[in-house]
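Hi Y.,

Following your request, here is the sequence exactly as I used it, all 303 residues.
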Amino acid sequence: MRRQFDFIKWAKVWLGISLAVIAVGLVSLATRGINLSVDYTGGTELELQFGQELTVTEVREAVAELSGKSPTVKKVGGGEAGTDFIVTTPRLTDQERLDLVAGLKERLGTEVTVLSVDDVSGTIRSELIRNAILAVLIATAFQLVYIGFRFEFRSGVTAVLALVHDVLVTLGMVSLLGLEVGPAFVAAVLTIIGYSVNDTIIIFDRIRENLQRQKKGRGESLAELVNRSLNETVARSLYTSVTVLLVLASILWLGGETTRDFAATLFIGTIAGAYSSVCFAAPIWYWWRQAGEGKRPRTAGAR
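Below is the corresponding structure, written out as tokens. Let me know if you'd prefer a different format.
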């Protein structure tokens, strides 16, 4: 018989790791905040094309000096230097924008073409933030109802706790790394929620199957059953996660500035989701089930 890893024995360690990572993230959120995109802060986004290749640093320093404002600059495409950049600043008037473009031409000694201009007002900003929060809450509520109906209420609540774990870890790491939070971030979070729930459902489904078999005469403790269920599904979860991470790593390496933050957010969330399904959701379900049966939770696991 193949040796099985005792996940339940180390349940408190898994929980401690989760709490430590979340705590670091919360400290970062409290001290550094989050890097909101122009869609959520309001401002002006310019897509500029230069007549010669420049670096992000060169463009950022020039824009900061000419506008007197702190800009965010992203290069379109891969490589260290390029001709197309997306420049985001606090809101500029039409005249300030014209002066900025003229100043860039003179300071950098090259032609500057404005490919697009996008102004976001404070009203639109509030609506976007509200819609983003609403989207995440609705997605979470649907997951709770679905899993609660498909399995049991205990499983639904545990899955939602795992989702909260994933979102907090992702948000904290995004703050720590200074990644931009915009509409793409919301899309990434919704993707993470779906991926994490799918992983959790597979584990809960296997636990349910093994519980049914246990009722038919297979004698084993709840800790042994949960451990067996996790060992039967962890390989699939690991292989799927590694495949996704390899794709995201290639996007991070080759995708350029415009997709970097989105891919990085998904990369963090994928790791958090895979971890929480196995090492967070299952142990919490186990403890809750044990408490419901009137027994003190055991963390010694199967022996």
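The first strand starts at residue 35 and ends at 36.

Thanks again,
Q.
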